[in-house]
Amino acid sequence: MTLRRLFPKTLPLAPLLLATSAYAHPGHPHPFEEVDEFESPAADFAQAVLHPFSGLDHLLAAVMVGCLAYMMGRKLGAVAAAMFMGSLALGWGIAKLGMALPMMEQGLALSVVAAGLMLVMYVKASNTVGFGVIAALGFWHGSAHGVEMASVAPAAGLVAGTGLAVMLGSMAAMLATKLSPSAIKYAGAAAAVAGVVMVVQRVA
Predict the structure, then answer these.
(1) 3-49: per-residue pLDDT in tens?
(2) pTM for the complete prediction?
(3) Backbone CA torsion sign across 163, 34, 132, 156
(4) Which of 35, 103, 126, 148 is deepest in the core (most CB within 10 A)?
(5) Could you give the CA distance from residue 3 to residue 9 in angstroms, rounded to a whole number?
(6) pLDDT reported for residue 36
(7) What distance in Å separates the CA atoms of residue 88 and residue 141, rounded to the nearest whole number?
(8) Which residue has better confidence, 5 or 97?
(9) Residue 86, CA distances (Å) to 25, 42, 140 in order
């Protein structure tokens, strides 16, 4: 098999290369209290834009949502992306009211598994289920960040950074499907495996 024919099949498996790093850094910890991670409004926003990229769980979830949005088509995909961002903001706000979700770290790891499996099993008829999963993912990740971020400035940066990750996911999906029709399913399977690794690490 030539490299040109092998590459489209192996590229979507890239998340598996990150699975071993999940043991050492499965994401960033989400304490059940606010932390003084940000220093000023400007720094708050700038650092929070990069915040979703500092944890494998957040990054994979957002990228998988971007892939799902691409699979849904332009109109439904735009709705799905907006729903994810809106749910993220809602989860953040509810967490600020003191209603944080239980089993936060395990839930974040499971969200990666769910997003990956959605890609593996995706069919057009599953759009309704897809919207529900996407909303749940956004809410859970927003809640995790709402616990640790003390002001609105980092929340705005978080939404912007997560939106960037979603866009990157959609672009990756567009490229991957051109390389191989099955690329999205391979990528979803790889992300799900990485999520399982994170679940095991956090339960152990």
Answers:
(1) 445 444 444 444 444 443 433 334 455 554 444 444 555 567 777 78
(2) 0.76
(3) negative
(4) 148
(5) 10
(6) 45
(7) 6
(8) 97
(9) 27, 23, 12
Q: Which pair of structure tokens corresponds to residue 79? A: 């709705």
Helices (H), the chain: 3-10, 14-24, 41-50, 56-72, 74-96, 104-120, 127-148, 152-179, 183-203
Segment 195-198 long-range contacts (CB within 8 Å, at least 24 positions apart): 195/57, 195/60, 195/109, 195/110, 195/111, 195/112, 195/113, 195/114, 195/115, 195/116, 196/113, 197/19, 197/20, 197/22, 197/23, 197/26, 198/22, 198/26, 198/27, 198/56, 198/57, 198/108, 198/109, 198/112
Q: How many other C-beta atoms can be found within 10 angstroms of the C-beta atom of residue 103? A: 11
3-state secondary structure of 31: coil
Token output for 126: 């599953």
- Say what the pLDDT of residue 173 is: 92
Q: Is the pLDDT of residue 164 over 90?
A: yes
Which pLDDT score, from 0 to 100, does residue 64 have?
A: 93
What pLDDT, on a 0 to 100 scale, did the predictor assign at position 29?
Answer: 53
